[in-house]
Amino acid sequence: MKREICKILCGCMIAGLMAGCGEEPKEKQTDSSVKKEASEVKTADKKESAGETNIKIWHDGDESIMDTMEKDVNEMLEEEGIRVSFEKKAALTDQLKLYGTDEVNGPDMYFYAHDSLGMLAEMGILAPLSDILDTASLNGDLNEMTLEAVTYKDTQYMVPVYFETLLFLYNKGLWEGDVPDSTDELYAYMETHTDTEAGTYGVLNQHSTAYNVAPFINGFGGCIIDKEGNPGLNLPETIEAVAYNQKFAALQADGDYNTVTTLFNEGKASAIIGGPWLLSGIKDAGIDLGIKSLSEFTLPNGKALAPYSGVQGVGVLKHSAGAKKDAVEKVLSALASEKVGVDLVVNNNCASANEKVYHNSDVAANEMVLTMKKTADTAEPMPNIPQMSVMWGPAEGFLAAVNKSNEDVSQAAEDFQKEAITAISDIQ
Questions:
Q1: Which of helix, strand or coil describes residue 244?
Q2: Looking at residues 378-402, what average pLDDT do you find?
Q3: What is the CATH number of the domain that holds 252?
Q4: Minimal CA–CA distance to 64: which of 259, 348, 330, 265?
Q5: Residue range 253-263: average pLDDT?
Q6: pTM
Q7: Cβ distance 335 to 161 under 8 Å?
Q8: Which residues pair with 313 in a beta bridge?
Q9: Which residues pair with 88 in a beta bridge?
Q10: Which residue segment(s) compose the domain that 86 sits in?
């Protein structure tokens, strides 16, 4: 009996030992898991310290343009362990108001037009570029006009990547003779090639849209608003420009975007003042397109037409400038590079802010981009001050009163100047 009991006890001991080899005790499992997690965190820390970082950039633009930049930047920074992703957000400025200080849910950077810069800078969510990199070195190859656009109160907040301007676009199959070099000669051409009753026109423009009339206003020395935030609708130079534009408007169609675009694409106008955004429709219409810079047209005062320029660039959120400074610096430099600039021209017809790009043979063959580059000599960046956001309404009310309702120019200027002052006061 003792021998049998001994056998049973030995068997239990062996079974217990075997069970111990098959499953780790809970205490040991916990210790092992903690060590594993600690090891993973340590590995992640090493990767982060080595520069392996994700950079999220919000935008509200053309996806194909963003794809070009994303592809180039990721290829350029692959060895650095930096990964950039562009995410489209509708109503981008509203999104930045909500998430501009949210390190978890917000972006690291944003890509947008420069004219919203002042508003975002005043919110205190943007980092000055001088906090991140040597701006003098970065800006060496960048166009001066684009740098002016991304500077607010003497502080640079964005890297300019490309820009747009209005152009003189004409149908080579309809235009007769040479395109003139003065606005007076252009008006004379319109007089002899316009039949408003038949619905055919010499030159079309959105004659009561402030952006499209800005070339005249700026060229005459007037302004919609000055750099200090003072509206300029009743300045003598602005009144002179609007009065001069009025006679052009009388020989043009109603002036809204869809009307003038359709008329030109249907071959009912010899020329149109518009931007690169019109090209796809013109191409689909099969028009043999000619392009001329607005800066090549001289006004009666001897100065050139001076359109607004919209500059697209990238800015940095403050939290990202602190937490991911090294990676952000590399991304900014990559976006400003010659490679990105060339590819934006070749793939997307974007006029690069990088001056070196224009020495490339593929870029030199792009007539539209070279024409915009020429226009940059006289173009003025759209004002980036917050007050500009409320100026479009009064400015276009002024133009509509003159061009569509035939109101006295001087009186309309005074009326809408008061409206502008009130609108600015309301946002302050």
A1: helix
A2: 97
A3: 3.40.190.10
A4: 348
A5: 93
A6: 0.86
A7: yes
A8: 112, 160
A9: 59
A10: 53-164+310-380
